[in-house]
Amino acid sequence: MTQADEPRRESLFGLGRRLVGGFVQLARLEITRGRQEIGEMIAETTGAAVMIGIGAGLGLLALITLDLAIVLGITALFEALPPIVVVIIIVVAFVAVAVGFAVAGVVNAGVIIGLVVAAVVFAVPAYLGFSAAWLWALFVLTVQAALALIFVLRGVRHIRIGPPEETIAAMKEDVAWAKRLLKRG
Prior knowledge:
single chain, 185 residues, mainly alpha, rod-shaped
């Protein structure tokens, strides 16, 4: 056997340097993984922010004068329909809003009572034949504000901000592995 065929033996200093280099490389990889995980969280949170933006846009829509066309259209429709049909439309609108709140996960006694009161406030004058443009403007505003709130609440529920849990778990595993390795040596 020649000297070239013999297995190479590293010094203790060389092995230690390789071990430290391996730990440094592992730490860099874990930092990169953490950055990727945080990037994924930011991408998911961006979708939730879009939902909040949609809700804010709908809320703004409820407050500007472009709603005048909607209000005038509803006023004309409700004047042409029999009062009982108008009441049915109002009740259906508030049931749809209640379903929206249920889908958003915000159903409690206060929401239900508020929707019932709002439906009664609009249905009673409609049943009695009262058909003023300001009442239907208030009706449109109420429905749009409720829809805006639903979008905002859904968006807020989808925001996830926190530490990169997978990276932390992986780092703990790496530390445990390194401790076991050092105990063996």
